[in-house]
User: What shape does this take?
Amino acid sequence: MRVLVTGGAGFIGSHLCERLLAEGADTAIIDDLNASYSPDLKRANLECIRQAGPVRFYACDISDSEQLSRIVATELPNVVIHLAARVGVRDSLVQPLLYERVNVGGTLNLLEACRQHRVGRFVFASSSSVYGAGGRIPFREDCCDPRPASVYAATKLAAETLCYAYSYLYGIQVVVLRLFSVYGPRQRPDLVLRKFTEMISRGEPIPLYGDGSSARDYSFVADIVEGIMASLGYQTDYDVFNLGSSEATQLGCLIRMLEHKLQKPAKICRLPAQAGDVPITCADITKARRCLNYDPRVPLGEGIDRFLEWHARLEQDEAS
Assistant: This one.
């Protein structure tokens, strides 16, 4: 199988590419190594991938339709796995046009390149944020009234719609995966588990927006990779799946777990709830279990332990 992964140097992408190489897939990566967080971290991820096997890397912004088309024409993959995106609810409120250009325009560029060069399968990493504050808990894929509460969420929902249009018009087999709060080794520095771990360890006050009752469906990265891999063999014209743990954990509870595992109390800086945040996310994974045999195996406590072990090694390497 020839696979092209956009965003392959990122957190989820690097784990996925390692798994693809382990399975013998001919793998290529597109990533622009942008400065949304340190490009050095993405380069380190690339080195980890290269230790797993040979991989071709293209430095490309998916907003560049001409370069993107040339890469797809060169690679002629059997499947494109599209992870690349501008991420983060709060940043999307500050830079809405950038998010629209990359998340919507970039996805359209990639779909068009797939149409032009007859790529038959397309896997799109969407987000639980598309559900917004509407719908019943847990979220089901057949929710008919998504209410995205941020620009980021709106761009992901718009990109899903483009995926459907290209599947309907041009026969591209599309699987959309709505990912729920992924965490684990190599997590981005801005994501809550890594951010809070580092701030608590340094004795810095952590920002707590709202009263701590907001809850998220935290999903370990290895489980998410299993779900993505399962989607590669799923035969469909177009379908949508939730990939999560199906358990929601309150932010206050997460902080207490970190305090216990780090053996250090957290200093709390209480702040008003932020625009764009939603009170809860929780995935109904019945459909993914049935169709993809998706079966998340890593509970939150064990996943945090694995993350902390990785983070301790990272700090040791940096100190040496």
About this structure: DSSP finds eleven helices and 13 strands in the chain.
